[in-house]
Specification:
single chain; alpha+beta; NADH Oxidase; 2 domains; 4-stranded antiparallel sheet; 9 helices; 4 strands; binds flavin mononucleotide
Length: 268
């Protein structure tokens, strides 16, 4: 049987989706290839512009997203595959302008070079609908402080849900051999206003990010990762992991740009 959903009969598809098929506990049969995909998923910010992503690859990537978990199984995501060159170019130019605006604001964020976005053969805009927060534990039409707390968490549930689907899509793209670029610099209201009419996205929806992917323009590199002992805590939070405000500020000032843009082997 060809496992690609498009080649399955409706019965085969329903059958495949209804089954949960896990390996024996502790087996590395799937863990190892999965880790290979995970550790080789690295960001690149410039691509081979002449490559054309087959429609089937978009479908395979979004098939992974479709199976992601979500709060209340609301599946609060929409994916807009952008293939028209003029549309891509307009969106890419928006980011280059945003990059310039940030430089003028002296935000001091080491903003990446968004010119590479125009070179991305793969381009998927990820959107959500914040009205889905009502599907999570909240009281409707209640402005109390108590409900504000629930609403804040509901928003987090929504964002985590879409992030889970987005991550699944990125891993599927990596498994197909692509490098990926997760771009959230699009969340600001001004970007929403500019982006939504271009893509025919209704007012109620919000664009959350763009997933750009393709073969890289030059060899990708692996970025630095925190060591396991720096992030894992057993039973109690290890106070050694807690950063003071000063330490955090120092990290942002002196380390952030290096871990964002340098090969892990060049980070001390
Ligand atoms: C939630 C999220 C938001 C991100 N937003 C941006 C972005 O707006 N622009 C960008 O160039 N990279 C963005 N990135 C990519 C990160 O900078 C990148 O994943 C990180 O530096 C680690 O590098 P790696 O992906 O190669 O492991 C984002 C990644 C995530 C997960």
């Amino acid at each position: 049987m060809n496992a690609h959903p498009e080649n399955m009969t409706p019965e085969e598809l329903a059958d495949a989706e209804a089954k949960v098929d896990l390996p024996e506990i502790g087996s590395r049969e799937r863990y190892d290839p999965l880790m290979k995909v995970m550790t080789n998923r690295v960001t690149v910010r410039a691509f081979d512009p002449d490559f054309e992503v087959p429609r089937e690859h978009y479908e395979m990537i979004l098939e992974a997203a479709r199976h992601a978990p979500s709060g209340a199984n609301a599946q609060p995501w929409h994916f807009i595959v952008v293939t028209e060159p003029e549309l891509k170019q307009t969106i890419a130019s928006y980011f280059v302008d945003e990059q310039r605006a940030r430089a003028k604001m002296k935000m001091k964020f080491p903003t990446p070079d968004y010119r590479g976005l125009a070179t991305a053969p793969g381009f998927i805009v990820v959107a959500t609908d914040f009205r889905w927060v009502n599907a999570f534990p909240v009281l409707r039409d209640d402005e109390s402080d108590l409900n504000r707390m629930y609403r804040e968490n509901a928003e987090r549930i929504l964002l985590q849900s879409v992030a889970a689907a987005t991550m699944s899509a990125h891993l599927a793209a990596g498994a197909l051999g692509y490098n990926v670029w997760w771009i959230t610099a699009i969340g600001q209201e001004a970007a929403q206003v500019a982006m939504k009419p271009l893509l025919g996205i209704p007012d109620e929806l919000s664009v959350l990010d763009i997933m750009a992917f393709g073969p890289p323009a030059k060899a990708p590199y692996k970025r630095w990762r925190k060591a396991p002992e720096d992030i894992i805590n057993w039973n109690r939070f290890d106070p050694a992991h807690h950063m003071t405000d000063e330490e955090l500020d120092d990290w942002i000032q002196n380390r952030r740009h290096r871990v964002m843009f340098k090969d892990a082997s060049k980070i001390d």
